[in-house]
Amino acid sequence: QEQALRKLLKHSKAELGDTALILVGDMTRERADALLEENLIDLAAFGQPFIGNPDLVARLKNGWPLTTPDRDSYYGGDAHGYIDYAPYRA
Question: What SUPFAM superfamilies does the record tag this protein with (predicted)?
């Protein structure tokens, strides 16, 4: 699957010319770094990881572990799962 994605990205980058290619979904720091280094994407986007990691940028920058968001709390009607995740304590 990953090889098929890389092949698609390589083809897409060639076809897009100067248009920036942004990829989101199942993103990890390692995956983002690899895709950027291989020039297969121009920007790696992180969506769901921001929910469980209000300090996501610092976590990625410092190599700190990511908290997995509680998907069962999404759209639950209250603040649980949205604003109650603690920042990483080194």
Answer: FMN-linked oxidoreductases
